[in-house]
Amino acid sequence: MGGFGKISGRHLPACCFPILHGLCSFGISARLLQRQVGLFPHIKARFAGTVVPGKQLTVKAWKVDSKTILFESCVDERVVLHAAAVTLA
Question: Can you give the residue ranges of the MaoC-like domain (predicted)?
């Protein structure tokens, strides 16, 4: 049981497994895109799900025009970052 469950006396299933912080999965996705297209001045995304440490994060990207790339990040075909876009310099 996690620390919260011991202290509060509440035994919630959500306390039993760790999740990756959303900014970490966002940063990993940004880094993967940066390796492919180089530096970019703007990125945005909406968080759509949780990532468990150790799971593989897959980034799918589509170039819309010369300055915009849309992408989504998935774990086991489940979207965890959506409505995401990178603006190129």
Answer: 18-79
Q: pLDDT category, 1, cuts 50, 70, 90? A: very low
Domains, the chain, in order of start with CATH, read: 18-87 (3.10.129.10)
CA 81, chain centre distance (Å): 5
User: Residue 81 and residue 50: Cα distance in Å, rounded?
Assistant: 9
pLDDT at residue number 17:
74
Per residue in 40-60, pLDDT (tens digit) is 999 999 999 999 999 999 999
Residue tagged 């990207």 (tokens): 61
